[in-house]
């Protein structure tokens, strides 16, 4: 079975508090975007799980890859046969786009279908949460408000994004989650994100903030420069996604010359996420 795990972007990201387990309570909005990996899962005649990766280079052994771990988790819980997996990476890593999390969650969903396990979405979300805090989002894969570690999800409608054009720019910078969180200062009293989503898109830049930008922009001035340039190009709202280093902008009209300035950018027109 072949599926196409998609990326996500974060609209607003507040770090609320540090938890006793070492993680952080956050508040963010997850939006799916049509930048996709390609994932093929084929049942094996043995108990072995094999993983082949192509496309963008994946700098980790198979056993540590979230796809392999997701398949192993399903095998341990449901005694499923082995599988042969081919992952073709197109979603950049170290970008805050959730590619690895999407691949893991899609693996859980695919194995549920292939082996007719009959798992409902809530059960699959619980398995996905064991692999990463943003993995559960990709089970429903719809616009959602994420709280606690990001795994508590509430479906959300965003009137300002009835139809929009989105541009994603990923500079040659890799930011690990640990590096990003090391520089943040939690703010439990910041206004809730959801109330700002009702505002016109042009007003979001004054209220919807990604808290990681405060510490990462001084460290990586190129990120701040790209965000500024997105506004100069006509973005109504621009932000870093997740813990970076990808940035995106929502546009009424994306300039035709943008590919000359950002040759490796990703552009979609009229992506309906409501």
What's this entry about, in short?
This protein is of the alpha+beta class. It is 28% helix and 27% strand.
Question: What does this protein look like?
Answer:
Helix content is 28%, strand content 27%. Helix 1 packs parallel to helix 2, helix 2 crosses helix 3 and helix 7 crosses helix 8. The strands form three sheets. It has a four-stranded mixed β-sheet, with helices on one face. The protein has a four-stranded antiparallel β-sheet with strand order 2-3-7-8. It has a four-stranded antiparallel β-sheet with strand order 10-11-9-12, with helices on one face. It is globular, with a radius of gyration of 19 Å. With 274 residues, it is of the alpha+beta class. The chain has two domains: 153 residues, Ribosomal Protein S5, domain 2, CATH 3.30.230; 112 residues, GHMP kinase, C-terminal domain (Alpha-Beta Plaits), CATH 3.30.70. Helix 1 links the parallel strand 5 and strand 6. The two termini are 28 Å apart. The mean pLDDT is 93. The chain is built from nine helices and twelve strands.
